[in-house]
Structures are given as C-alpha cells and as structure tokens.
Design a protein that fits this description.
Helix content: under 10%
Number of strands: 11
Amino acid sequence: QVQLQESGGGLVQAGGSLRLSCTASGSIFRVLVMGWYRQAPGLQRELVAVITSGGDTIYVDSVKGRFTISRDNALNTVYLQMNSLKPEDTAVYYCTGRSPFSTVYDYWGQGTQVTVSS
C-alpha cells in the first residue's frame, strides 16, 4: 500500500509561484505513474499534470508553460512547480499515483489548498 502526503500549498498573489511536494511511502514509487489533480469549488476534478517513471510528462493546456511536474525517485517525491499563477488556478491540489499497467489512479493524497489572489 502506498500513502501520499502533499505539502506546499498556500496563499499567493497572481503572478507568483508555489511548489507543491508529494512524498510517498513504500518501495514501488519509482515504477508508478504520478500525477496532480485539482478541484475548484463547484467544478469537476481536473488532471493537471502527469509524469511517468521514465520522466515523460503531460500537461493540461491551461497550465502548459507555467507548471512543471518532476520527480525524485531517490526521495520518493513528486513535485509541481507552479509559476505565473492565476486566480483560476485556485483549487485543492491532489497528488495521485497509479500502476503503469492501469488507467485507474489508486493512490491519493489528502489534498493541499492553493489560493491565488487577484
């Protein structure tokens, strides 16, 4: 079983930056596909960024060029660097992981709030 713990959320002004971190327990982290979802009030949960075990990345169009997902397998940690933040980035951000052989994200963190003021 993998447990995920996020940190790094907070309040920032528009144009600012935050870095989210997610540390995983267990020895299988290095093979997992890791991602960040976000959910804003009244909206559906949205997949923001994904990184494979090999370091390939995918981003939702709205964050391309502003957000960067990365991972450090030695530290069992995945990061989301968020630059040029906008008020519409305000949401609860969730770290998530899945097997490379599955399409279902089985592992979830508790979420961390990111609030961007205008």
